[in-house]
Amino acid sequence: MITPTTHAAERVGPAFSNDGMLRARQKTRQAICDIATRVTPGMVEEDAVTMAKQILVDSGMALSWHPTRVRFGRNTIKPMKMASEPGVVLQENDIFFIDIAPRLNAWEGDGGASFVVGEHADHARCASDAERLFHDVRNIWSTRHLTGEALYAYAEGAARKMGWELNFDLPGHRVSDFPHAAIHKGSLADLDVTPSAMRWILEIHLRDPERRFGAFYEDMLLDDEHYR
Length: 228
Known about the structure:
Strand content: 15-25%
Order of helices and strands: HHEEEEEEHHEEEE
CATH architecture: Alpha-Beta Complex
Mean pLDDT: 95
Radius of gyration: 17 Å
Number of strands: 10
CATH class: Alpha Beta
Number of domains: 1
């Protein structure tokens, strides 16, 4: 495991706990799966968001430091800080992604993944490539110990070779005992040291060059043992 540095960007708060962070991550990933199983064609995006929030609350987590997002179809190309076009309905052959940031007690969770409904080869490839590129970049981090800046430079080039655009409006960020923003607000893409495990969220948002759809995957930077 890449151990924490003394870099100011990697400080933690008084409640930080590796076990706590891993529990928050596990419940976050489970919530993503639970939400996805309840998203169906014909659903309006706003209703999916309401449903996702209820699942988080029912699982014992708090709605936390960024909005709960479920984005359908053409809204999947938008930067996260841009509001969705209202009233978008999930079609029979479509793509959607989930992006949640719940809190379990003192510890922040953050996760995202993309899903497809029906049959659409480009949607399926984009969703698969977002997750594949996440793990490709994570492997580079684990084996070559690149800086955050270098990891995103690599990700941009790899995305282009796959035929996608990498959205740099989602450049990765800290995660910690809540609130991480009191410790560090900078992005992973701007980090000039090798990021440590259990400190950073790697975000991959791929967009179709024609801006028809996109796919998203994010998770905590961790060693392979946590992904088996």
